[in-house]
Design goal:
alpha+beta, 7-stranded mixed sheet
Length: 225
Amino acid sequence: MPLQDQLDRITQNTRALVQPERLAVSEKATADLFNSGIEDRILPVGAQAPSFILEDASTRKLVRSTDLLALGPLVINFFRGRWCPYCVTELENWRELLPEVRRRGGLFVAISPQTSRQNDFTLQQHGLPFPLLADPGAEIAEQFGVAYSIPPEHRRYFQSILINIPFNNAGLSYHNATEASWRLPLPAVFIIDRNNTITFSEAHADFRVRPEPAAVLAALDALPR
């Protein structure tokens, strides 16, 4: 089943179960994010990719993008966190498709602003075979043009549905949360070739829409071997 069909099913179930007034808050936040023009800031195909050094959840060692690219083209998935059902559904799809990425000579990593501990929970709970890298304050996501700060009214919405973004991202409570702990990435996929050039770039302000893995694999196929 295409990934988007799976995500649309989550949306349908959510609309059937969640109160209309809460749905309205989320819908407005999504519309406001789109209207901010954030999609115009996403690094495009042809741009040079930012380099990064980030902590791996399973080993707690630093991973360098330059080392990964020395092995082959790199597929990067930015995701919001383990609390997001759309994100874990997407990650589980990539879990099943990892052999297809490797068959094409690629490597796959997922990056989120959540702590390495939360990334490790995600990895263990969903049996993920690829690295999950911690991006505190969504700083690398910012360099790729996909980071944003959750506005105050939407922070209250997350509190009302018991999703503690500052704790997930930085181990903080609502009372001592920093601005950096309220940062998230747009869900996004980039492919970087061995020359450090972005050859695939897709992200959406609507968190319910994700790049289709089939399109990513086709872009990997198009890279010279």
